[in-house]
Amino acid sequence: MPDTAYSPGKGPLAGITVLDLSAYIAGPYGCTLLADQGARVIKIEPPTGDNLRHYPSTLDAESRAFLGVNRSKHGVALDLKQPEGLATLLTLVDQADVLVHNFRPLVPERLGIGYDQLNAINPRLIYCAVTGYGSRGPLRNKAGYDQVLQTMTGMCTAQAKPGAPPEILYGSVVDFYAASLVAGAVSSALYERERSGLGQSLEVSLLSSALAMQSTRLIWAANEPRALDRDMRSGGITGIHPTRSGHLYLSANTPHFWQALCERTGLIHLVTDPRFDTVRKRAEHRDLIVPQLHEALTRHSALEWEEIFGDAVPCAAARQVDEMFDDPQCLAEHLIAEFEHPVVGRYQGFTRAARFTRTPGPAPFAAPAFGADSQRVLREAGLSDDQIARLRAKGALP
């Protein structure tokens, strides 16, 4: 078993070994979040590699999405369909704390890596399955993807403008939320294991993630019809508005933010109008308020309004994501780091979202090149150079 002794400065999950067999975004980024907290994450890919490696990208040598989702991992390639490849994985399982995969429910047992099969080898293993729809029900064996679940669960319909068709929320929001649930659930299971000494299986589905994201809408009281408008947006005031140059998001739900917005746009007469003294009333009268607001906003650009509103009104000028590379707030928070990749070379990317003061965790490093760490990881697991060479000769180790 891995050394679980406390390592100062190495992160709250120092000493934990995670086997990441998942692909695409939800499972892999969940494992990256564990790596951010100090876990040693070994990404195990099939001979064809993670499918995300092959996604369209303006980078020639590697997929931009793969780099962003798989930082701070060690890369191993194994063919689990060959007996020797499976046996090698089981050797790693015996020494691991966590295994994460996103196979459909029928696949793991067929491969020989179902929970019961691995629990017999390592009873302390935390086994996390990331599925599209869960492991029960009529859709359990259907492939699930972020935007498929967005569309199924009403997110795209809610995103649509009045009278317009449903719209996708780009950015893989369901996948990334599922990744957060993976990291949280695995961490909780590890905490419980400290008490019981036993591992367990757990599951996060894209379906449950998409519904969890809509908890504010997914309420149906006994005395109301099911088919009703569950839009939680605050009407036409809170939202994105045009300015003289660029667009600006404004949030003015609380009384003091609403007053500050009116004062700084010269619409102070709206504050004393009883028709507009609550969020609900302002939403009902948005057709009266928004034209006046838009006319006022034409006096300055979006960036100028940011300065004018300052801390008094929550707002943001609409920017491109690449502007975050040199954004003063992002730099002050050390959210952007420089990485060195053996194929891509030097690049900048996001570091990590959570900050720990006493156990900050190791510095993040670049996503692995395909199979780059196979030799070293297998040696550390106890395999000899001759054994590794035989695996390569048989094609079990690409």
From TrEMBL:
Family matches, as InterPro entries: CoA-transferase_III_domain, CoA-Trfase_fam_III, CoA-Trfase_III_dom3_sf, CoA-Trfase_III_dom_1_sf
Alphabetically sorted, this entry's keywords are: Transferase
At the top level, the lineage of the source is: Bacteria
Entries under Gene3D superfamilies matching the protein: Crotonobetainyl-coa:carnitine coa-transferase, domain 1, formyl-coa transferase, domain 3
Pfam families assigned: CoA_transf_3 (PF02515)
For molecular function, the Gene Ontology terms on record are: CoA-transferase activity
Name of the protein: Crotonobetainyl-CoA:carnitine CoA-transferase CaiB-like acyl-CoA transferase
